[in-house]
User: Fold these one by one.
Assistant:
Number 1:
Amino acid sequence: MVKTRIAPAPTGALHIGSARTALFNYLFAKKNSGSFVLRIEDTDKERSKPEFERDIIENLEWLGLKWDEFYKQSKRREIYKKYLKQILDEGKAFWCDCAPEKGKPFFCQKHKKTMNNKQQTKNNCIIRFNMPKNKEIIFKDIIRNNVKFNTNDIGDFSIAKNLDSPLYNFAVVVDDYEMKITHIIRGEDGISNTPKQILLYDALSFEKPEFAHIPLILDTDKSKLSKRKNAVAIGDYKEQGYLREALINFLALLGWHPKDEKEIFSLEDLIKEFSLERVKKGGAIFNLQKLNDINRQYISKMRIKDLCELLKSQITINKQIGKNINFQNIVEIERGRMNKLSDFWELSDYYFKDKLEYEKELLIWGKMSKNDLKKSLENSYNILNGISEKDWNLENIKNILMDKTGKINNRGELLWPLRVSLSGKKFSASPFEISWALGKEMTLKRINEAIDKV
RNA sequence: GUCGCCAUCGUCUAGUCUGGCCUAGGACACUAGGUUUUCAUCCUAGAAACACGGGUUCGAAUCCCGUUGGCGAUACCA
């Protein structure tokens, strides 16, 4: 059975890149009716923090990438210890206290001679893998085909600080074997660890999984995506009001592409369509404009009730909603203008104000005189006042207003001042929509206030 | 430096394995026009790419070699 895993280190919040790797692992597992494992790689006692672990778990859950099994490396020390002892006993690893030169593969001359010494002799000793010299390591990568390394370029790499503190490469190999992981799908930056891990599989007589290295997500300067230029934490995007569906959809399209030209995919669709064969090799720059576009599409297609709930869940940090305001109507009107949920509060602030503040010049359309303007506003007032509360709906308001303006050469002379009187803004939704959402009373009040200004 | 990976519009990408249907397709962004009282939406159109050089072949974006460029790894981090 296919089994994949995502193995984040809790040394930072859930990163866009990890989320995308998690997604690909999840999709591949589910596509093949397999299972997906979440393993927290907290072997680094100093840098691992519980709050990051919480963030990773919460945001993976939020994205909807449900795992079937959960592990923490810090709870598995006895398992690593057993295997560490084993390869030490077999002479495939050794204790060493050398300080190797940087940037060069290191082969220990000194300690291999004393390899029969199975005990840690000094405190600052670590355990190194006894690397064979000049051996070709070739592995097949599902995405990249054959990748070749020579052990001379690697050296006696470290596998543990001591029996209780395994290092990354060792812990990963033991876990992937013990957890019966069949496919290791990870970022391209893991390629250079692969030969080390393959040697470890062989040294421990473990059966090897398949490897697939997916392209990296790049910053606008083409380096690995980092905190400096963009928000990289999934939590940040969630807070700004990106929808999980949009984020998933966008992430899937970074490095993967379906057979046809379809672009909008639910998680279920993705499971059906996904294949590692269609993952491309080159890195992909994170393009916020594309994310915005996809997010906008999801927002405009969402069920209005759900969208209102989501928006209201953010309201504590924003404003109070007056009881006379029809919140759902406002959402209906403004949803097409939002890229992300947080945009809503800027777009819609004028609905919630008791009194609008704006320059009276803004009310003027074209070359209207003061008198024209006053007449126009009074005209609007009378027209709208003639609509009963019962008939106060968007269609009616629009039809009646348009019917009246049809007789005027320049519609703007009626509609522009009306719109500004209702919104106080240069750009906003139409006067029909605003009137509808505001209700008759508030609409008439705002027109009156505009007339008073003139 | 060394080792490895990669290379199609500004960006995400289709096409590459299985050479001809590619005068290189789509999307985002951009520009122009249309719809609209404004903004947004929507519609139409446009500009925009096979990194370079050699081969192989009747024919190369596609196969091979080289060059250049980019990225990654070179930890007692993961």
Number 2:
Amino acid sequence: MNIYDVSEHAHVSIATVSRVINGNPNVSEKTRKRVLDVMKELGYTPNVFARSLGLNTMKTIGIMCADSSDPWLAEAIYYLEKELRGNGYDSILCCTGYLPETKKKYLELLRSKRVDAIILTGSHYIEAKPKDNVYLLEAAKDLPIMLVNGQLDGEQIYSTVCDDHAAVYDAALRLYRSGRSSVLYLYSGNSFSNLNKLSGYRDAVRDAGFMVRDELMVLCSKDLDAAMERLDTISRSGVYFDAVLASEDILAVGAVKYADKAGLTIPKDLSIIGYNNSILSKCTTPEITSVDNKVESICTTTVNTLMKVLEEGNVPGKTTITPELIKRGTTNF
Amino acid sequence: MNIYDVSEHAHVSIATVSRVINGNPNVSEKTRKRVLDVMKELGYTPNVFARSLGLNTMKTIGIMCADSSDPWLAEAIYYLEKELRGNGYDSILCCTGYLPETKKKYLELLRSKRVDAIILTGSHYIEAKPKDNVYLLEAAKDLPIMLVNGQLDGEQIYSTVCDDHAAVYDAALRLYRSGRSSVLYLYSGNSFSNLNKLSGYRDAVRDAGFMVRDELMVLCSKDLDAAMERLDTISRSGVYFDAVLASEDILAVGAVKYADKAGLTIPKDLSIIGYNNSILSKCTTPEITSVDNKVESICTTTVNTLMKVLEEGNVPGKTTITPELIKRGTTNF
DNA sequence: TTGTATGCGTTATCAG
DNA sequence: CTGATAACGCATACAA
């Protein structure tokens, strides 16, 4: 069942059939109707492979992420896919894990599939050392590279980021202003985004007139129990803190559980702020004040930018989205 | 940069280059090496579009789900993608939402992309009325249809399901055996899976020697606050219950919040069991006893089955996975 | 408005 | 072991 069959049945050439398929206006209404009828009658569907070969594109975007089951990434993927499909593009999903070599390997793989662009979802794709990002600059010579919550300067590389520094700065400052004297910052890694957040925390501590203390900046694996135990250990070791600011909601949940266990009242004895405004922040009692980093905005912006890029339009290399602090029960402001 | 360029540089025919690419053994070691060297030197990558056209397959599977940001579905997608990629297949993601028409539309869309098979993820794809599933039977004439946690009999349709009936039956019975007299069943819809669960609940109530009462089977939207308020309303209306069995963890979280609000002690005054054993079940205090329905097993089984199907192997149309009750703090057994 | 002819980059079937 | 050549199904430049 191909374009030839249709052309025969409709008594026209394949060129005309092709024109009908592609909505070319240079077809008389009469023949157009006849061809459409035949197509329906035969149940004809154009062969995308043949079309792709000629046009050298399949209208497909590669979406890379470390782990699509991570709540934030899952939500991002949801919006990206929806938005891309709305623009007539398919999405090939590719979960790369967190290892640099595999990220690189999968990027190559997607590239060999001739996708029209690649979206790197999440802040884990930008490494601290510039040389570790060279492969992205290299790839961007062939196709547009879109960064969701990550930033890198380069030709054909487009970043849409949430202003994490400002968000954490603001959150920390509010804690101090509400009477807290010792805000512990709990974070889960050294990604681009995490480094920004940490720097926001540092600046806030200084601007609030306090000392930045190493023992109050705590690295911890992205796990509820780990966070809880970490805080417990720190407290027992004699370090005092009356607020926890976390780089992820799950760590903030850990903080709530720690408070429960230690018999602390929230927010009186311990204030807590999470990050991402995910469903997790609503599962605890009290519910967790959390930074909403606007996944949906970031993703729709990314896709809109990409569409403009693919239409050869001129677009900025970086767009910044402003986060918002959602106040709930773990803070007293 | 194509196979002709390589053939010229290597002084062989394109047939030989093609043989090298595809690992055909009928090539002398010497020429193979020469060709490989040239390919590397030129940075040649085979054009997947041309290859697809010839072979009439792109080694790509369509993954449909209602909403990839739903935690259970997100996890399923993660495992499916990983497993498929391990077998050399790409995954095209397609979020269809919950409306029958759009599900149908997107199925057709994926079909027109000539994917090698379609995986329907989640129990929302099987409708109660047989006629509403006819389109799946129709599609299955062209390609394998895999159901993840849904069941439908038909040629080229393969189901991998969790025994939800048994899981809920078992959970409810344990509640009664632990001294509960009035177990409220809270559920969020009438999908295939939900109907199975409900029937498991009913059977357990009877087998425990109690009456099945309509007011204890409560339909509620899949939302934390909705669940909490629903329970509150029911309780105020004079209906007594000392246990809540939920069809989703999020509803169980709502039950925990209800207990907090109503001043009930968990599990003494109110026992709670959730479903899915998701991260949500660990966020509350106490943590929620929940049914683990083995997402990973279901997904790897699905992909393994699919691979056998694509190799023309003989495989069963239905595989059942046994769930497991994970005991935590919201029950006293 | 319609038709003819050609190219897109492979794979696979033959013949050597 | 290697090479020539015909599909694969479509889009499009050019001709009519």
